[in-house]
Amino acid sequence: MVNQRRSDQQGFVFFKCRNDAGDSSNISWSPFIIFLVATGKTWRLIKEYYQSGDIVIGGIISHIFISSDEMTFERHLHQEPIDDVIRFSARWTYLASLELLSTRGKFIPNYKCDAQTIPVAVIGGPGSDVGLTMTSILHSYKIPLLIYGYPLTPNNHILSMFPNGAVQYKMMLQLLLHFNWTWIGVISPDDEQAEWVAQVMVPVFSQSGICVEFIEILPQVTFSSNLAEGIAEGAEKYSIIMRSTTNVVVIHGEFETMILLRMLLHYSEFADASIKTKIWIMTAAMDFISASFQRDWGVDFMQSAISFALHSKEPVGFHRFLQKTNPNSDQDGFVRDFWQQAFNCLLSDSLGDGSIEEDCTGEEKLETLPMSVFEMSMTGHSYSIYNAAHAVAHTLQAMPFSEFKHRARTERGRLKLADQKLYQLHHFMRRVSFNNNCGEEIRFNSESQILAGFDIINWVTFENQSFLRNKVGKVDPKATPDRMLTIYEDAIVWPGRFNKARPPSLCNERCPSGYSRRKKEGKPFCCYDCLPCPEGKISNQRDVDDCSQCPEDHYPNKDKDLCIPKYTSFLSYEEPLGISLAIVAVSFSFITAWILGMFLKHRDTPIVKANNRNLTYTLLISLLLSFLGVFLFIGQPGKVTCLLQQTIFGIIFSVAVSCVLAKTIIVVLAFMATKPGSRMRNWVQKPLASSIVFSASSVQITSCIVWLITSPPFPDFDMHSMTEEIILKCNEGSVSMFYCVLGYMGFLAIVSFSVAFLARKLPDSFNEAKFITFSMLLFCSVWLCFIPTYLSTKGKSMVAVEIFSIIASTGGLLGCIFFPKCYIIVLRPQLNKREQLIRRAN
What we know:
The chain is of the alpha/beta class. The protein has 20 helices and 28 strands.
């Protein structure tokens, strides 16, 4: 089997399988090739190896392109029968197909005087158009067909040596996702496949998150087309491709697409567009093929390209066979024509057109040719032909032992098939299974497609027009879907433009952790802006559509890419704020206790006895308890402390304010009782003060009892008020009851302030009204400021605000009411006499 790729010609191939042993029960198949080469319109058999009784396998194989008729200029230019430069025209395929059905050496379609030369099967390719064209003729004669090019629509009458094409595109999609290439360009030749690319392939890719920046259709360049227009169109497409932001371009095409692509890139170098290195992703139907005029072109554009390739393995002895091949020892005319074109020389017995001056020696070595002209390894397409020929041979060998075998007879030791049974060959071939000489299993699936995988090739180019097919992965259709594609990324050689690292191919930079994506209006969905995560949310991956909420007991870090556990927080004695408030409360408690002790010591003095001594003691005890009650608010909240905090605070303050109110009323009544004929003296002498304190406090005590019964306060966690803290606090239980307690206390304070304000001008020696007025003014101011401040703070600051308000208001009462008296008792004892008080009152 020869490597069928580098010939600038096309024709059909006969594979001949001969049984040299003469034993029909144990056939040893030795396939070899007879080429029929196109020379103008005449097809001739270069060398016959045929012997009577041989089994013939036909082949219609495209070798890049052919020359057409010379132009006679007898008709208008567009009417001349000039074929495409690249595409193997249907006319030649039809001609080759009909030649197979004609008597050898004569072109008489549908007539064969030698039935033994009817091919038992025909191998065709590599272009899908070749397969379609030959099928339309040969299928009518029930000749089994094996197509090794791009797969046709599954057909039970055709065996495809090309694996399932759908698998290839699924794996191409997986390859793009593996490398995170979501922003690509697509190139397709101008044929029926271009519509499939736009309507099927691109939407499927989009559903998986891959956007297409552009879809460019390669122009068809023919001798009959305007070459200048073709080059201009190609230059425009070249500029679009080079100006694109994507670094990855998927090329959908077949073997001739490589020639078109090379022409596009070669002639567009003169266009006004900078050259950017692109990562070309190519399908397995493509291969590296050069036309004659491209033999001296560079192959740098292929650097780091990644292509799917038909799986291939080199048969034993193939490389040695190529080394021994020369035009003198091989009588096949194809080799002689190929030799002259490959080495650009002329054999001694060949006729040239004068353009070639150098003679061929016949001793040239194929390995000295650049790989862009000839490769010494077996390519995927050649391997497919190799397997196709062996599939036919193994099927023929197995058929005589099948219960469905056709009748066969031997003639002079050679196998001869009954013509009327040849169509059964396809049926048996679909079920054939064998190991080829490379040790690989060959068999077909239910859709008549070969069960084979693909190789993933990374192209490494060199300055001498050579390149290396670096195998960096494979597609195994027998594996599970998640393991079907294997990539050896460490083996890939990336372009120097990307510092030999994996190149990115995104519409824009990926959103880092701590950000989420937002689609750009008017742009494909792969293009987006990056927005920081909102408060309380994070993203610990790149390119997330939405940030995720941290758990309640966690909070985002500064970069918003990690949730950090919150720490518990409460106003403790171990922090400066808690210690400071505790020290202040203790200090005021000692001061209050000292004042109470001093008043008890001087209880018989006029200043202490004035204005109801018992109310004074009650007020001082209430103020002392208020200062001590601060310690219920400091430290970790517990069930008992939460029950006592607000209720004790409300009751004690109510008692204190009630005492102030009672003292104010007593002052007013006492002043009124000094008037002649006044009845107020009786009221002053009755236990009025105790009644006022008891009745006013009873209302607050009742409210607190109802609060504790219906919805008592309890220890609680506040995970939302502070970003980094879990606040341990006392939940009021019933907020309405809490504000009722505060409201009632404020009501008593306002009443006390109003009464004291009215009595503020009474003689100083008789009453405390002026001092009570100042104390209640301070008290009301503190608690009026408390409410908005309390509601606007969070966490332990709320507790600190309440403690400060308690200390400030209690200290205000203590200072305004008792410090003047303490001043007289301690520093001016001479004034603490009844005579002085009466004289000052008069």
